[in-house]
Design brief:
The protein is an alpha+beta fold. It contains 8 helices and 7 strands. The chain has one domain: Gcn5-related N-acetyltransferase (GNAT) (Aminopeptidase, 3-Layer(aba) Sandwich), CATH 3.40.630.30.
Length: 228
């Protein structure tokens, strides 16, 4: 397999970056679905639905059919977390990557390239939370091609963001990742990030027990960098 290198984003990477991001997010939908249907709340709901349908129809078979239909209907709801997130990203910051990450002074975008193809990506920008702006940068849009996982690409991309933030005098890097992205959580924690918050992406997400984790990595101050 071809070696990779980390370099700044170029305009000719545009379509490859958008495609890599979308694929990386959508592949987590099945894991999200498994998490939701295994949750205590979902299983209790299925049990209540089964009992109600069986009592109303007087048939075990119809009770099982009602529960099965509920499981089928849950899939597009859970997948909508991923598809809506992809649509939102592709229509906002990933629609004009230059304006979002190349022209602002404290933002950047890197790709991992192997054999002339983009196999990884990550960005740094001002945090969405106003309380964190000025003191932290946010790691965003991390994604690595399936064929290049386990080769240190994500670790190298994360390192670029941490070095970038520290070089500019920021005291921390923050990020958000979903509860089903276990490999990403392990990577971030190995790089010094700690979980500092949990929230749901929507009321539906809260109902289905689907959560987003907020992480923070505090950076050591540089002796030659004045406080911001």
């Amino acid at each position: 397999m071809a070696p990779y290198r980390i370099r700044p984003y170029r305009e000719e990477d545009y379509e490859a970056v958008r495609c890599l991001f979308a694929q990386g997010i959508l592949e987590h939908a099945p894991a999200g679905y498994r998490h939701v249907v295994r949750s205590a709340r979902a299983q209790l709901g299925l049990l209540v639905l089964f009992a109600a349908a069986r009592a109303a129809a007087g048939s075990w078979l119809l009770g099982l059919a009602a529960a099965a239909l509920a499981l089928v209907a849950a899939w597009p709801l859970v997948r909508s977390f991923s598809t809506s997130y992809v649509r939102q990203a592709l229509s906002t910051d990933l629609r004009d990557i230059g304006a979002s990450y190349l022209r602002p002074p404290d933002a950047a975008f890197w790709v991992a390239e192997a054999g002339g193809a983009v196999v990884g990506m990550v960005a740094a920008a001002a945090p969405q939370d106003p309380a964190e702006r000025g003191s932290a940068l946010e790691l965003k849009r991390m994604s690595v091609s399936r064929d290049f996982r386990g080769r240190g690409v994500a670790r190298a991309l994360c390192g670029e963001v941490l070095r970038f933030a520290r070089a500019r005098g920021y005291g921390a890097v923050v990020l958000s990742t979903s509860m089903v992205q276990v490999a990403a959580q392990r990577l971030y924690e190995s790089q010094g990030f700690r979980k500092v918050g949990t929230f749901s992406p929507s009321p539906l997400g809260a109902l289905l027990c689907f959560h987003i984790y907020h992480y923070r990595c505090d950076l050591p101050a540089r002796a030659d960098t004045p406080p911001r």
